[in-house]
UniProtKB/TrEMBL annotation:
Motif Histidine triad motif in this chain: 98-102
Pfam families in the cross-refs: HIT
Protein name from the UniProt record: HIT domain-containing protein
Residue ranges of domain HIT in the record: 7-114
Database matches in PROSITE patterns: HIT_1 (PS00892), HIT_2 (PS51084)
Top-rank taxon: Bacteria
Length: 114
């Protein structure tokens, strides 16, 4: 289940390089190329789903694994506090249409997000 034109499918397939920090059966986590916090990691399912809701409907086990993988990376990097974000739709800033969970940590954060 991959899309030949999808950047994150290519990262999962190791056709595009990325700094991978954690892998599980269903997920791959790698550092964001344009980090918005001292720690900014993207956790993606190995299979191609356009957004978080599609993944949750199609593969709930992988959906849960995104969160547990993000928590494992936060713990491994010494962060008890972190923020998880799924952007869904171009109108709120989604630019890559392969589900990805942002895990951001290492600085104070404001609420609501911009
Ligand atoms: P979105 O805006 O879709 O929620 O998040 C996409 C994220 O992917 C952005 O934070 C962006 O910096 C990151 N990104 C885009 N291209 C690449 C890339 O080639 N490699 C990595 N590691 N991150 C990327
Ligand atoms: Zn993809």
């Amino acid at each position: 289940m991959s899309d030949a034109d999808c950047l994150f499918c290519k990262i999962v397939a190791q056709e595009v390089p990325a700094e991978v920090v954690h892998v599980t059966e269903r997920t791959v986590a790698f550092r964001d190329i344009n980090p918005q916090a001292p720690t900014h990691v993207l956790v993606v399912p190995r299979d191609h789903y356009e957004n978080a809701a599609a993944l949750a409907a199609g593969d709930p086990v992988a959906s849960a694994e995104l969160v547990t993988a993000a928590a494992a990376v936060a713990t491994a990097e010494g962060h008890a506090d972190y923020r998880l974000v799924f952007n869904t739709g171009a109108g709120v800033g989604q630019t890559v249409f392969h589900t990805h969970l942002h895990m951001l940590a290492g600085r104070p954060m404001t609420w609501p997000p911009g």
